[in-house]
Write a structure and sequence with these properties.
Chain A: It holds the Pfam family Transketolase_C. The complex is a heterodimer of chains A (about 350) and B (about 400). Chain A has about 350 residues and is an alpha/beta fold. Helix content of chain A is about 40%, strand content about 15%. In chain B, α1 runs antiparallel to α2, α4 packs parallel to α10 and α7 (about 175-190) runs parallel beside α8. Classes of the chains: A alpha/beta (about 350), B alpha/beta (about 400).
Amino acid sequence: MAAGLVRSGLAGCGQQVSRLLRRRFHRSAPAALQVTVRDALNQAMDEELERDEKVFLLGEEVAQYDGAYKVSRGLWKKYGDKRIIDTPISEMGFAGIAVGAAMAGLRPICEFMTFNFSMQAIDQVINSAAKTYYMSGGLQPVPIVFRGPNGASAGVAAQHSQCFAAWYGHCPGLKVVSPWSSEDSKGLMKSAVRDDNPVVVLENELMYGVPFEFPDEAQSKDFLIPIGKAKVEREGTHITLVSHSRPVGHCLEAAAILSKEGVECEVINLRTIRPMDIETIELSVMKTNHLVTVEGGWPQFGVGAEICARIMEGPAFNFLDAPAVRVTGADVPMPYAKILEENCIPQVKDIIFAAKKTLNI
Amino acid sequence: MRKMLAVVSRVLTGASQKPGAASEAGRVLLAARNFANDASFDIKKCDVHRLEDEPPTTAVLTREEGLKYYKIMQTVRRMELKADQLYKQKIIRGFCHLYDGQEACCVGLEAGINPTDHVITAYRAHGFTYTRGLPVREILAELTGRRGGCAKGKGGSMHMYAKNFYGGNGIVGAQVPLGAGIALACKYNEKDEICLTLYGDGAANQGQIFETYNMAALWKLPCIFICENNRYGMGTSVERAAASTDYYKRGDFIPGIRVDGMDVLCVREATKFAAAYCRSGKGPMLMELQTYRYHGHSMSDPGVSYRTREEIQEVRSKSDPIMLLKDRMVNNNLASIEELKEIDVEVRKEIEDAAQFATADPEPPLEELGNHIYCREPPFEVRGANQWIKYKSVS
């Protein structure tokens, strides 16, 4: 708790310092600002709550507990009961209440403690939120954000480890984003809140505590990352690795190792699951001629499956020198024992193996 | 007045025997006849749950109100019967859940609230769509799936929206948390508005409704939960579905009233009572409206396998809401039978014209298929049945 306060204090200081340095001294490079994913999400929500009175947050333990994973730390103290609302354990009920509030013109952020619990409320997300603008012929928008940690954690077993990217990504009317870094988290969360459509923000519990360098522009209160645009995290020429969320980090690790062997990977961070930026992937594949998709979710009907299908349908197919390959979670409910769990999520070695297989080396 | 007397005397003494003279005379007599301005009626006492007060047992109906309620109820009735006809001609397809028999509910509720209040209901929604302000032609054209429909033909029977009316919802019970959310927005905005959240006796057993009761009471949301109990959830009678059929008590810690849903005045007074309670910040209230649907659950259900024709006939002859209002008005000199018949003629014409429109209006253009996926979004492409078929999507 104290560390968090210090960190957020430092974040404020860092901002002041770099601004000062920019103004007075021309050529001094400011110290790189490190912000964790948790703090970036917190900042994003704080800034959007401040900017627009209609924005409010509801969910279990978001207020007085400071958030089950402390993502909403300090917000209740700052904004009070009206804007930060603790709910009873009633996902279907409070998700529906959030959607109704959005229909009536407010801009709710509805937290699911993990997306596993969103299954209790999935009817409200899909049938009440996603489809309504279309069914009403454009009369009834639903400006809501559903957020929370998604996918595997550590030792939480099968019912608490499912990845919902493919399930929500399947549905027209929804937008689905999956941030990896702090910059992603802040920019995408702010865009999600400002978007007039239902947006699902798939966070990752294991990433919450990870610090990232925060570029200057990310420190602005109007820093937005457009929904629907992927980012090339690392340029390369031999093979394209496409991923979202935590596995992006693993791809970068794999790329570093492969680089020593003379293989240059282009690593793409999808950032948005729906609408997916297939063009960025196509351009990359047309350059590298090889594709590996990496995701934490199950293989069947997953994000990677969708990417492969679309690559086949588009111009990039003719540039492939080998079939596109998927690296995914293992096709089993998540086991508890550490050694089993470890082998159920894509590891760096799995990515390297798949890349080498694709490149036939 | 002198002019009128002159006309009257001319007609009465006049030799003209041309057809229409009699009705012209009648009309003139009508104009000269004095109706009462208003009348007071005894209405059925409401059963209450956890309440010290209760709605009044008398209601005053003015002539103007009576004529208005009559016309609106008759319009809803004839609109639903027209929908039945169009469905049997296969001009309306899919789901069609008709409201005839329940008119006193939608009209009485609307009479008890303001246009700035909010309403949400389930799929038996055509009546509310009309009372919330949409014209019959847009409702029928939506049922027939034409571009002139209120949702451009993209929603159909269960997805009609208007200002402060949030549908029309297809998933049983899902509209109840939505309604409480709208009430939350009312409270958040501090505008003294309330939300009427309707559901049926079948939906009353949905878990999410109990989750909603809890949060609405906890947070004192200005929400009136309204159970339209028409005795049957699809083909299942209330006795076979609910361990407790006292739907007005099912909110437990939420005060409730049970209302005669066939009497528009009873519904109106109960609504005013509940609305005042909610607006005062005391939290939600539950209203059970005891009503009846003449049609089956939907157009696919003849409605006689789980209830007798005798039962339907009995309700029609003893409790029809339009008949009850008509009798009250005529017997208390608030209106004449001829006057009400004229309204019937007007209504029939309006419905005929609307049905004409709904049948003749073209279907939405194919280009409409991709539109309205997202709100306030730059145009993008939507995939069709194969990768080469693309539709443009504008907001």
